[in-house]
Amino acid sequence: MPSFDSRVPAVLVRLDPNPFHHGTLGAARSLGRAGIPVHAVVESLSSPVVRSRYLLGAHARPAEPSPAELTRLLLRIADRLPGGPDQPAVLVPLDDITALSLAECRPELAGRYLLPEQSPEQLARVADKAQLAETCRALSLPHPRTELPTSADEAAAMAWSLGLPVIAKWSRPWLLPPGGGLRSTTIVGSLAEVRELYARTPQAGSRLLLQELLPAGRDLDWFFHGYVDSAGGCATGATGRKERSWPDGAGLTAVGRWSANPAVDTMARELLAALGYRGVCDLDFRLDRATGAYHLLDFNPRPGAQFRLFADRDGLDVVRAMHLDLTGRQVPAHTPAFGRRFVVENYAALSVLASPRRRYAAEPGASRRRGERTETAWFAGDDLAPAFAMLRAWLSHTLRKGLLSLRRSLRAGRTRRPADELSSPPPSRARSGQMTQH
Predict the structure, then answer these.
(1) What is the pLDDT of residue 422?
(2) pTM given for the model
(3) What phi, psi does 55 have (nearest 5°)?
(4) Nearest Cα to 144, choosing from 122, 165, 173?
(5) What is the C-alpha separation between 234 and 99, in angstroms, rounded?
(6) By CB neighbour count within 10 A (0-12 exposed, 13-18 middle, 19+ buried), where does 131 fall?
(7) Whole-angstrom distance, CA of residue 290 vs CA of residue 167
(8) 399 sits in which H/E element
(9) Residue 371 clears pLDDT 60, i.e. is over it
(10) Residue 281: helix, strand or coil by DSSP?
(11) CA-CA distance, 389 to 19, in Å (whole number)?
(12) Poorest-confidence range of 121-135, 318-332, 406-420?
């Protein structure tokens, strides 16, 4: 294992309200196991990650997660950390809105926290889905055909031109209101659905994008995780294959495998160099079988939730690389562990239920000792409490969703019944002594 400066604590920050974000737990475990004191800003003090033995302190995110409120909270946390003002801590953003907010309030946090050299404008260029499409066009990087409609009629016409079904994305998904029923990415199959989704633009808080749907399939979805250090080097970078996702075909990684893909690796590194990017990144690609080109789908300027897939034999991952670099230590080169798998238990179960017959072949030459090569997102023998807390929260969440769906169905049935009765013809009267046939 590399030598870490355990005097420098880390503060994980996540403003997204999702209580099932396994990447936060992965970061707490990764740094905590290296002997680094870990604190976290999370959506709630009842979050499953708070139960981790590797988390020394937890703080609820601001009720109004603006950069100003976040700055005030982080300065209060810094005052309570061991070492005081003379010992800055490493800040680790775990979602897009946090990465953008930290870049915006960087001047106010200087001297109290350590962050990669990033500006809000640099991050928005890749995190905002509309700007990412422009960035890809400017760099001649393969990217799905993307349209930005300005009306419901234009949205329908663009969807028809792209060819149904299409991918619908909100350009700034971190602005989506919690509990509003809007997903960051949706596959829409009809013009009526496109119109309905566009009508919710004011609620979504950002523009709607329509993208050509590249066909999904086995071995087509890939991702790259890396850390670009202060000198512009990317010693910690690797490619992985998405074996299962949730939602199926257009969602997060439920099961991933560390696999070599030189084409994706080269594209990612060239893009990072062209952008002058610094810090952790998570890039998603899909192969277009028709052209043989890998298309960049998403660029997340922070650790992907599945970043622990790329923990090598020495325990090095992108979050540990970030701590090493920002504390002035050398980041060693990754030692590839091809065939290693990462499984997110709750989402993998949903994926199997949705596509039970899907099977994937093992990586050629991969070890058969799966116990040594598979890491689960929630369950860990040295840190059991978060898994049980997640399971309780997941069952409660599923029950609430089920009851809500049942109430909606019953309400819709009561609404339809009077109209159905008025529109139905009166029952025919059978003659005396005759039976009606059904």
Answers:
(1) 42
(2) 0.89
(3) -105, 115
(4) 165
(5) 19
(6) middle
(7) 18
(8) helix 385-423
(9) no
(10) strand
(11) 11
(12) 406-420
